[in-house]
Amino acid sequence: MTVTKTQLADAYSQALTKGLADEWDYTFTRRDANKMLDLLWPVLSDLALKDAKKTKPGSVPLGNLGRMKMTYKAATKARKGINPFTGEPTTFKAKPATLQPRFTAGKALKEMAAKHCKKIK
Asked: Are residues 29 and 73 in the same domain?
């Protein structure tokens, strides 16, 4: 099942209300959760891209969920090859250097996934 942003906002608002409603004397709505999520993404991407000029950028911890980091992929030169379908010689275009986001699951998430897998069997 793929989770939509609306479903994520609903679950997030329920979790915020459950965890903070008594302390803050406020019930969080889906709209509040959506605003918080919209504000979270730019912060995470800015932190992940903070050291992007280095060949090995840093990473952003996401608590028990895991860690997000940007990986540097070097540029490739144009090269000659053979089309496997037709057998004709062809030239593959050069690609510029890029930064690609990578997510590494944390120990707690891996353990939860393992427990869930055992329940399915």
From this structure: no
